[in-house]
Write a sequence for this structure.
């Protein structure tokens, strides 16, 4: 049995869900949680316009009001900022080649610097500064970041999202013997999640 957590490091509701995942880790252990990256904004090529910026900020305020998670609402991204998550998702897969057991900790650090410090996760130099704290071999990380193997690993995550029809982020499922049961389809509090886990266990 394991929990399967579908999320993106640049999805604000996933940042709002971060304390729930932290509580889940404390209760069940990191090894019981599998992170599956979602295809959220992976194909974006156009810079953000004012309409999208205002929408994103509106979502940030909603997440903050609902979850209490901290945000820097200046959203000080460059004028030509392209809201594309491909590189940061690849960085998680590259990170896992060296520090799989700390995957969720790296995910949290990515979210924290993006949402509370306005650091640009589409910039490779920013990602390298974050992974340095974990003591990775940086040369190996850079090579893995560009490798076809890492790209294939990410595609496998996206394929599982499609296979299980995951459309809301975050989502959480309980997997046992290749059977997936939905626990959360979008944000839920930890108290509600506990009730759903207990209800599923009783059936």
């Amino acid at each position: 049995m394991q929990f399967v957590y579908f999320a993106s490091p640049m999805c604000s509701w996933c940042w709002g869900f971060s304390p729930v995942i932290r509580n889940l880790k404390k209760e069940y252990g990191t090894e019981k949680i599998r992170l599956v990256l979602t295809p959220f904004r992976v194909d974006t090529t156009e810079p953000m316009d004012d309409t999208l910026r205002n929408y994103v900020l509106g979502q940030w305020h909603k997440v903050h009001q609902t979850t209490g998670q901290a945000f820097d609402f200046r959203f000080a991204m460059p004028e030509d900022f392209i809201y594309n998550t491909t590189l940061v998702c690849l960085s998680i897969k590259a990170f896992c080649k060296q520090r799989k057991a700390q995957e969720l900790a790296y995910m949290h650090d990515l979210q924290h610097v993006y949402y509370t410090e306005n650091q640009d996760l589409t910039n490779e130099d920013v990602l390298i500064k974050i992974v340095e704290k974990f003591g990775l071999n940086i040369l190996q990380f850079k090579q893995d970041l560009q490798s076809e193997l890492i790209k294939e690993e990410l595609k496998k995550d996206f394929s599982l999202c499609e296979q299980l029809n995951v459309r809301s982020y975050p989502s959480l499922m309980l997997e046992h013997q290749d059977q997936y049961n939905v626990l959360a389809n979008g944000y839920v509090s930890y108290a509600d999640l506990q009730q759903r886990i207990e209800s599923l266990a009783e059936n």
